[in-house]
Design brief:
The complex is a heterodimer of chains A (451) and B (347). By secondary structure, chain A is of the alpha+beta class. Helices cover 16% and strands 28% of the residues of chain A. Chain A starts with a helix and ends with a strand. Classes of the chains: A alpha+beta (451), B mainly alpha (347).
């Protein structure tokens, strides 16, 4: 950008863009304190050639240009790193802020806990494997795939055991699906509790999964089509995670997956085998999958009775509430960020539904008073994240940004008060409310509940 | 564990089953893959098929006393769950919140109370099988699947005794576990909910796609309180350093200047919540004036959080004998606005 614009007066409180493209915390504090002349000083020290020019007329100093352009950097004048310097590539050193994080105080032991995906920093719809959210009930393991076995038993003609070799020989499919923990946004049932989209919505990721359709395996074992209405999926970890899956869902689009985003599953995500149950809450996507049993009644396992059951206002617990209903959230700008300046912003976010495809997403910048349709990016797939974008010019005044998704069933994502009217405030699970981000005059974006 | 198949398995040798599967394969060309995978042996199925269903299919024969369970508890369970299963230090409490009346009705009354502080395992438990199965497969947390069948019965009996569901001299066994099921406090408290079990269904909460001049209740707003601003660390380090925004610095003192998202003026709120019935701007009425409040707490950084808690809970003694009644009805955002306004002397 032009240097003259740098020197121009900026609205109070806005972060000033720097030509070097980043400000450290101290520099941001300088701007916030109104001491913008430090930027000019930074330029003076950054380029001695410019300093001479500026000394010539100190009152209205106009540097000849950005030193990042005028002075060729090292990477343009020397030899870079060789191929295969890293056998498995890593993100840039400048991307260190993209980390999975725990939410302080949510759990007491980190082997039975959650780490959240930094949605505020991600693009498109695919979650990088290293940033996929984690939820373990008894810690994670890196299991030797040559020793892993998968068994199908119960109401089948031929109970079978498969090795990974076996499974990877069978017909495979690759499909893109979101996975969302049933407790995603659960901390916000009562009121605002966490600051950023990482913590409000980060128990959600999206991958291209590859594996064997569960229907192929069930057929291979000759399952009882008449009586086999339910499956029990069981993990090989210490928690022996177990969840009931309906046969209808299993035959529709469930798969026994060994790959995510073109590589084998990550250990934290169930290496070498996990269940993929599209549209259903993440706890059913049993990791380190060792067994599926075909049965004729639900199993009432611990994680579908004592947990992952929804407490209603009358004190009853809703059981077997698997489907993740239609939901969306704006990821940029989002809570805990501060806008650089007034002017144009590409408001961007994610929408998804456990019942099918996203039909539309609307965006409001006035807390839900008025709405306009956002642009949906392709591909728009069933039970998969859909990215939406919306052009917005911030005039510097307070604003409240919201997004509202509509899925192919016609279901409209509800407001938090509409959810509370039916389900109260203590449900923990299945909070798919419209998310509000308040943009203050300072440019700071905060998590609020407006309806 | 599925009973009918296990019976059939005992009667039919595995080889015949495999042969039958191959015949099926011939009949339906691509339905089976007889050359991939193999039939599970009876011993393999027995080793892994450990689940116990609500109808107790899969429950192995055995027994264990409350007394034996207590011994195991004190060596293997107590460090996480507390002596009486009451601890909230590592995991949520196991016992507490149930009553003899609940055992009569099969519904735990405290689950319907919004003010009840915790939801214990025994408050929610609707099937004894769930408890037995989980202890066997997942406990103790750091050594799962290490308990013998009789030890699982014993620990289950001890947990049930913590909730006064069985007496202290009780011996739980596969023979009497159904009787215990009939005493579970929340046995009638669980409701399968089909609309969120089936993909092709409609849920229970509905919104409409209003586009223009939509109804709003803007005054009802919740935001993160300032004292929790850095609870998740410095957010400046949790966003990318390039792009249209930066992570907000939530640690340095200069960053603590963001204005609260108040929509209604604090003066209006003071009217709405009848604060002005006892407090005036510059003279003592029943309670202290806003000016006096501001003077007392000037320069005290903890005053806001402290006063918010005080207005919520009520109290007396700070300003004489007049009682400040509790105000649980004021939401966080309004309360913060009111406290700030008070600390500024009601200006």
């Amino acid at each position: 950008m032009a240097q003259s614009k740098l020197a121009a007066a900026q609205p109070a409180g806005c972060i000033q863009r720097a030509p070097e493209n980043f400000l450290d915390a101290a520099q941001i504090a300088e701007v916030a304190a109104g001491r913008r002349d430090f930027l000019r000083k930074a330029l003076l020290t950054a380029g001695s050639g410019i300093a001479v020019a500026m000394n010539a007329s100190p009152a209205r100093a106009e540097p000849a240009g950005d030193p990042n352009i005028l002075e060729l950097p090292q990477h343009s004048r020397a030899l870079g790193q060789p191929v295969a310097a890293r056998g498995y590539g890593q993100p840039s050193q400048w991307e260190k802020n993209l980390q999975r994080r725990e939410s302080p105080g949510l759990t007491q032991v980190s082997a039975a806990s959650v780490s959240f995906t930094p949605l505020q920093c991600l693009f498109g719809i695919i979650t990088p494997n290293g940033l996929h959210f984690e939820r373990h009930h008894a810690g994670w393991w890196d299991i030797d795939p040559s020793k892993h076995r998968f068994m199908i038993n119960g109401l089948v003609k031929n109970p079978k055991v498969y090795t990974m070799d076996d499974l990877m020989r069978l017909p495979s499919v690759s499909r893109m699906h979101f996975i969302e923990c049933g407790a995603n946004t659960g901390m916000e049932w009562g009121n605002v509790a966490v600051p950023t989209v990482q913590y409000t919505h980060g128990m959600m990721s999206c991958c291209e999964f590859t594996g064997v359709p569960l229907s192929v395996l069930l057929d291979d074992c000759g399952f009882d089509r008449k009586r086999g209405k339910y499956l029990l999926a069981e993990g090989a970890d210490g928690s022996g995670m177990t969840r009931t899956i309906s046969m209808e869902r299993a035959l529709d689009d469930c798969m026994v997956a060994y790959a995510m985003n073109g590589e084998m599953l990550r250990p934290e995500n169930g290496y070498p085998l996990r269940l993929v149950a599209p549209g259903i809450q993440g706890v059913s996507w049993v990791k380190w999958l060792r067994r599926i049993e075909v049965g004729d009644m639900p199993y009432a396992t611990r994680d579908e009775t004592l947990h992952y059951s929804d407490l209603m206002p009358d004190g009853t617990l809703r059981q077997y509430t698997s489907i993740q209903e239609c939901k969306s959230v704006i990821t940029s700008p989002s809570g805990g960020q501060t806008l650089l300046d007034k002017g144009y912003y590409n408001v961007s976010g994610l929408a998804w539904s456990g019942r099918g495809r996203i039909k539309a997403v609307d965006v409001s910048v006035d807390g839900g008073r008025n709405w306009q349709p956002a642009r949906l990016e392709g591909p728009i797939l069933g039970k998969c994240l859909t990215r939406f974008n919306f052009g917005w010019t911030w005039n510097g005044g307070p604003a409240v940004l919201q997004s509202r998704a509509i899925d192919e069933t016609g279901y409209v994502q509800p407001k938090i008060n509409q959810l509370r009217e039916v389900r109260g405030r203590r449900s923990i699970y299945h909070n798919n409310a419209i998310q509000s981000w308040r943009v203050a005059a300072s440019g700071e974006v905060g998590n609020v509940q407006v309806y | 564990m599925c009973r009918s198949t296990s019976v059939r398995r005992r009667l039919v040798p595995a080889g015949i089953l495999a042969a039958a599967a191959m015949m099926v394969a011939a009949a339906h060309a691509q339905k089976t893959f007889p050359d991939i995978g193999r039939s599970a042996t009876a011993a393999e199925i027995k080793a892994w098929d450990i689940d116990v269903r609500p109808d107790f299919t899969g429950l192995p024969a055995g027994s264990g006393s409350v007394a034996k369970g207590q011994q195991i508890w004190e060596t293997k369970c107590e460090s996480c769950h507390g002596v009486f299963g009451e601890s909230n230090a590592v995991f949520t409490p196991i016992a507490g919140g149930t009553s003899a009346q609940d055992m009569q009705s099969g519904r735990v009354a405290s689950l319907a109370r919004p003010d009840f502080p915790q939801r214990s395992t025994l408050m929610k438990l609707s099937q004894v099988s769930t408890l037995w199965d989980y202890i066997r497969r997942a406990m103790p947390w750091n050594a799962p699947k290490s308990l013998s069948v009789d030890e699982v019965y014993a620990v289950t009996a001890y947990v049930l005794n913590l909730g006064d569901i069985v007496p202290a001299d009780f011996v739980l066994s596969d023979g009497n576990i159904r009787e215990v099921q009939a005493r579970l406090p929340n046995r009638n408290g669980m409701r399968p909910y089909a609309p969120m079990w089936t993909a092709r269904a409609t849920g229970d909460v509905h919104n409409t796609r209003c586009m223009k001049d939509c109804p709003q209740e803007m005054a009802q707003m919740s935001a993160l309180p300032d004292y929790a601003r850095n609870q998740h660390g410095n957010l400046a380090e949790q966003s990318r350093h390039i792009g249209p925004s930066r992570g907000t610095d939530t640690v340095s003192p200069t960053a603590l200047t963001a204005s609260p998202p108040t929509v209604t003026s604090a003066h209006d709120l003071a009217q709405k919540y009848a604060c002005n019935a006892c407090h005036q701007a510059d003279r003592k009425l029943v309670g202290p004036s806003y000016v006096d409040i501001a003077a007392k707490y000037r320069g005290n950084p903890g005053a806001e959080a402290m006063l918010m808690a005080k207005v919520r809970a009520g109290g007396f003694g700070v300003w004489g004998t007049a009682v400040m009644p509790p105000h649980a009805e004021i939401d966080d955002a309004d309360l913060r606005a009111l406290v700030r306004w008070s600390l500024s002397g009601g200006k």
